[in-house]
Amino acid sequence: MNGYSRALITVVAVAGIAAVYVAGYAKVVPLPHVVTNTDRSSSPLYRSRLDFFVQSDHPAELVFVGDSITQFGEWSELFPEYRTANRGIAGDNTRTLSDRLAALGDLSQSTVVLMIGINDVLAFEAATPEIIARYEAVLKDLMSRARTVVVQSILPVAAPQNIEINGSVSALNEATKRFCQENCTYLDLAALRTANGALRSDVTFDGLHLNGTGYLEWAGALRRHLTTRQGG
Known about the structure:
The chain has a 5-stranded parallel sheet, with helices on both faces. Strand 4 (148-152), helix 9 (163-183) and strand 5 (185-187) form a beta-alpha-beta unit. It contains 10 helices and 5 strands. It is α/β, with parallel strands linked by helices. The termini are far apart. The chain folds into 2 domains: 1-30; 34-230, SGNH hydrolase (Rossmann fold), CATH 3.40.50.1110.
């Protein structure tokens, strides 16, 4: 086999893998682990969004903080009755979020809506107790500066093979729920999960990220939570 043939086979194989992923890769085989030695905080996307956060002077009633699942939400459309700020960055985890908390600015008049942790779990770069410790450090910082903090349960993944991943997600959610009993409010997005604790297949397009149905249901649950907390 000559070099051209080998190169052609490689290109076809890569294209095939990409096609399988787009078609629902994460629902058929286990989700790929996040590469732990990749510093996403140095990527152009990360630096661009962080620079905008630092320079923005946009007082908001709801500040959405998290990773790509938060970033991809059209929060200003989903909550037109509030001034919103989307401070999600794709690839974020508890470590990188803790490094950028100062860039969130003045939160004294804001409700922080937080979802973080799935990238920590996917990377398998730390034991669950270490992730919990980092998560609680993030929460303590936010609670010291924000008017209120709403902690949302981490969403599981849809692929049925990922029992270990969803088990870790459940453990993190239980820990943050206990922490929030005295320190913050907790919103369990249970409606987006199946009976066995996986992400519902009809609310995701790749087994991890949400589709339109997922975001609409999430927003509905959050609106009900906020209304209950406000007594209205």
